[in-house]
Amino acid sequence: MSVVEEEGLYRIAWLADDEPSLNGRNFFGYPIVGSREDLLRKITPLEIRGGLVAVGDNRRRLDAAGWFGRQGLRLVKAVHPSAQVARGVTIDDGTVIMAGTVVNADSAIGRAVIINTGATVDHDCVIGDGVHIAPGCHLCGTVRVGAASFVGAGSIVIPGTAIGENVLIGAGSVVIRDVPSNVKVAGNPARPLGENSRDG
Hints:
alpha/beta, UDP N-Acetylglucosamine Acyltransferase, domain 1, eight-stranded mixed sheet, globular
């Protein structure tokens, strides 16, 4: 919400949450109107320019973004004013670029992505749909991150590395080689979790 507020391109009308106990409450001054279905009924009489899925879990965020699109609704993107986004960068809908981030030239950021506080994404990176680059991460040039992967806080990924889909990289990891899809890695250098190593 703060990114949307500070960017100033959109006014937040209200919030929706599938948790029934939150219906009717206020969150930072914005009313929670109910579930997704309640949201659809609320949109009908009003002019709504779009929505943003604010869910941390990658799979749930992608699912909600897909649902949003299937209803014929438009996702918007939000880029904090303090973020540095270079020329040639493409950012797909539903993505949020948080405060203090840097995204360098000719990188492509997918749909429903989070580039979190103080992270850097260097030139010619490709970030897949539903990825979360956590606070303080540093992706060097030409890194590729597959859909729904999570790069943990403070991690470093060396140039040219390919990270598969649905990967979890533990906080503070140093990724020096490609990571296949559907695995969890951590450490310096990053290795599959559970693998014994003196320097892992």
